[in-house]
Amino acid sequence: MQAIRRVQDPQRVYQEKLPDHMDDGMKHQDPGMYKGSAYSGYPFLMLSDPYLPNGSMSPLSNKVPVVQPSHGVHPLTPLIPYSNDHFSHSSHSPHLPADINQKQGVHRPSQTSDIPGFYPLPPGGVGQITPSMGWFTHPLMLGSGMHTTGIPHPAIVPHSGKQEMEHYDRNMKPQPEPKREKEAKKPTIKKPLNAFMLYMKEMRAKVIAECTLKESAAINQILGRRWHALSREEQAKYYELARKERQLHMQLYPGWSARDNYGKKKRRTREKQQDSNSDPASPKKCRARFGLNQQTDWCGPCRRKKKCIRYLQGEGRCASPVSSDGSAIDSPPSPPDALQRISSAFPSDKLAAPADPAPKEQPDPFPGSAHLQTTSSSSSRPITRCSSAPAESPTFSVASSGT
DNA sequence: AGTCCTTTGAAGAGA
DNA sequence: TCTCTTCAAAGGACT
């Protein structure tokens, strides 16, 4: 039933979930645009994207040179956002069972029969699509993430990497195996990538090349800032790609739920739960402490529904909480408005920027560039210090971690 | 081998 | 309805 519901109403879901700034036009462009073909959102079919003025496959291809990343991301990365590694270890197996995901209760539609009319498959199903892509020999095409339709989807990966994929290939051999062992080798369907993940996927190599960094935590901090530095139009491209990716994912795995992958980081989960239980910086507790409206007031100057920045910075208290309309709630030194107070307190971050517990010594002269003051206080392993430098030629040096 | 770090966004669970 | 949690990618560092 859940699968049916999800398949029947994806358009509404996506439109509702579109970021606010997408309301301007994106939503209105959408009606019916996917109804012609069930897989019109499928990456391989997006050779000419109506959302991209020049029909480019890459949202940044018209402004950012494609850098072949070390991990082999395909130039079409934004539309094929899954790691090739997951598939490069298994050559095409004609014996690959079509229905490889029964364990997770994913209903694998047998062509058109099980797909509600909202996603009418073209005659012959998606399988007819592949011949038109004869030029396209992406490794994913040869992987074991093969959909019933014959089109692989990179979201299908083994539970824990390459070795399991090799096991999985062996499973293709007609050798009877214990049921329990078989179940343990069932691949995992991963979540579709969101807009920021798609952006990271594309820009990571560029940042690595610029900064000669490889540590992802530091790279991601840079990418996070650059993401906020993007214009709405630029971000909208990634939101749209993500929306299509979700739609494709929903089409391929109608019964899949993000919940299927819950519980795979159990240690971290437990620690976080313990932490949250005793964390006085939680928004709810901060609001309670300041007598704020739990429903409408924001916690702290960050205006994010997360932990209080000031608390995390060591002040041990919430400061300058603002109401939902931006007006000050406590009594700071009479700022013009809460937003200005916020931006003055955190000059290098936009309002929506992530809470960086590191003290902001001076405004970031290159917002969006690879300017990393320091790493998080939550990390006992300072990673990188990035000097202020133009975005085109940032310089990085590895901070002495003191280890 | 498994987990952490770090980012944003989507989705699910629970209050 | 809102808040909170988890996971998605990445790879070096750590346990």
UniProtKB/TrEMBL annotation:
<dbReference type="Pfam" id="PF00505">
    <property type="entry name" value="HMG_box"/>
</dbReference>
<dbReference type="InterPro" id="IPR024940">
    <property type="entry name" value="TCF/LEF"/>
</dbReference>
<dbReference type="GO" id="GO:0000981">
    <property type="term" value="F:DNA-binding transcription factor activity, RNA polymerase II-specific"/>
</dbReference>
<feature type="DNA-binding region" description="HMG box">
    <location>
        <begin position="189"/>
        <end position="257"/>
    </location>
</feature>
<feature type="domain" description="HMG box">
    <location>
        <begin position="189"/>
        <end position="257"/>
    </location>
</feature>
<feature type="region of interest" description="Disordered">
    <location>
        <begin position="317"/>
        <end position="403"/>
    </location>
</feature>
<dbReference type="GO" id="GO:0000785">
    <property type="term" value="C:chromatin"/>
</dbReference>
<dbReference type="Pfam" id="PF08347">
    <property type="entry name" value="CTNNB1_binding"/>
</dbReference>
<keyword id="KW-0879">Wnt signaling pathway</keyword>
<protein>
    <submittedName>
        <fullName>Transcription factor 7</fullName>
    </submittedName>
</protein>
<feature type="compositionally biased region" description="Low complexity">
    <location>
        <begin position="374"/>
        <end position="388"/>
    </location>
</feature>
<keyword id="KW-0804">Transcription</keyword>
<dbReference type="GO" id="GO:1990907">
    <property type="term" value="C:beta-catenin-TCF complex"/>
</dbReference>
<feature type="compositionally biased region" description="Polar residues">
    <location>
        <begin position="101"/>
        <end position="114"/>
    </location>
</feature>
<dbReference type="GO" id="GO:0000978">
    <property type="term" value="F:RNA polymerase II cis-regulatory region sequence-specific DNA binding"/>
</dbReference>
<comment type="similarity">
    <text>Belongs to the TCF/LEF family.</text>
</comment>
<dbReference type="InterPro" id="IPR009071">
    <property type="entry name" value="HMG_box_dom"/>
</dbReference>
<feature type="region of interest" description="Disordered">
    <location>
        <begin position="85"/>
        <end position="119"/>
    </location>
</feature>
<feature type="region of interest" description="Disordered">
    <location>
        <begin position="257"/>
        <end position="287"/>
    </location>
</feature>
<keyword id="KW-0238">DNA-binding</keyword>
<keyword id="KW-0805">Transcription regulation</keyword>
<keyword id="KW-0539">Nucleus</keyword>
<dbReference type="InterPro" id="IPR036910">
    <property type="entry name" value="HMG_box_dom_sf"/>
</dbReference>
<dbReference type="GO" id="GO:0060070">
    <property type="term" value="P:canonical Wnt signaling pathway"/>
</dbReference>
<feature type="region of interest" description="Disordered">
    <location>
        <begin position="167"/>
        <end position="186"/>
    </location>
</feature>
<feature type="compositionally biased region" description="Polar residues">
    <location>
        <begin position="394"/>
        <end position="403"/>
    </location>
</feature>
<dbReference type="InterPro" id="IPR013558">
    <property type="entry name" value="CTNNB1-bd_N"/>
</dbReference>
<keyword id="KW-0010">Activator</keyword>
